[in-house]
Amino acid sequence: MSEQSAAGAMPTAFSVPWADGTREPLPLVGDERELLTRYLDHYRETLLLKCTGVPAEALSERAVPPSGLTLHGLLRHLAGVERWWFRIQLAGEDVPLLYYSDDDPDQDFDSLGGDPAEALAVWRAECARSREIVAARDLDATGTHARTGDPVSVRRVLLHQIGEYARHCGHADLLRERIDGATGH
Asked: pLDDT by residue (tens digit) across 133-161?
């Protein structure tokens, strides 16, 4: 580390933003709802950017062996996660699980015979429904956590989803870089 850096000088180089990024900058201040929902939407948009411009067949490419992850699989997985947490647990909707069964719990990643464009449309629809559910509820409003039967708050679900998307956007970063070399945040 240089003497200047050690003295607390501000950096002059920052990480490179995604070339096609059209996202609004994240707020540095705001109320809790604004910060939670904006951060979650930022990660949703990041996933979309990582999938944009990739040929359909490459979206299903397992580009980082031995991992079976694909961008197509991430879209399917996160559509299912949106439905599970927001629609089923928070809103109590009686809707079927997406890309999951007890007999085939990993079909979101393993069974990629479907059209990636359809997976993208399903994911977008689930995100839109999740936003509606959150907008209609106070952060302290609760649904029922399926595993425990205990109450689970909107706030807790938003925090969980931010972590879920952050983890999977990291996966998407690696996949996209392997597919065509595109990088950025």
From this structure: 999 999 999 999 999 999 999 999 999 99
**pLDDT tens digits for range 29-71:** 999 999 999 999 999 999 999 999 999 999 999 999 899 999 9
Per-residue HEC secondary structure of the chain comes to CCHHHHCCCCCCCCCCCCCCCCCCCCCCCCCHHHHHHHHHHHHHHHHHHHHCCCCHHHHCCCCCCCCCCCHHHHHHHHHHHHHHHHHHHHCCCCCCCCCCCCCCCCHHHHCCCCCHHHHHHHHHHHHHHHHHHHHCCCCCCEEECCCCCCEEEHHHHHHHHHHHHHHHHHHHHHHHHHHHCCCCC
| pTM for this prediction | 0.88
Q: How far apart are CA 28 and CA 25, in angstroms?
A: 9
104 φ, ψ to 5°?
Answer: -140, 70
Give the contacts of 56 (CB within 8 A, at least 6 positions apart): 115, 116, 117
How many CB atoms sit inside 10 A of residue 115's CB?
13
Is residue 149 a contact partner of residue 134, using CB atoms and an 8 Å limit? no
Helix axes of 32-51 and 116-135: crossing angle, nearest 10 degrees: 170
